[in-house]
Amino acid sequence: MAEEKKKKKICIIVTKGTLDAAYPPLILASTAAGMDWEAHLFFTFYGLDIINKKKYKSLKVAPIANPAMPMPVPNIIGMLPGMTAMATMMMKNMMKKHNVPSIEELINICKEMGVKFYACQMTMDVMGCPESDLLPVVDACLGAAGFLDIASDADVTLFV
User: 25: which of 5, 17, 109, 115 lies 20 to 30 Å off by Cα?
Assistant: First the structure.
């Protein structure tokens, strides 16, 4: 009897809740799922904003102290009023121009492909985020030990 081949598994710890930081874990998870990998996302600290129904549609790009911003002006200009809104608009337009799905679309794509979403229970407690504030895509709220158990046999584990 042939032994069934185990699926590869990726576990990603998502720690940042800005627009530019939301794309990499969602793209990696959806790509892994598309390659028939098991994919798990653990949202902790500000990464929780990505799965918070009150915040995920208004994620921003912070231009200050972000030297990678493709703006032809000195980084210090990022302090000026309105620059966060401008940087956010620029990124959204750049993504749209290149047919990259929005964060909302990527979340839905991931869920449709079977990606598992976990919210960090400790972060929820510390930041006063009730479970009712989370998007319905969240599979479970669990602590670090719970996620480490899931990640213990992962082929790839990333901290984003």
Answer: 5
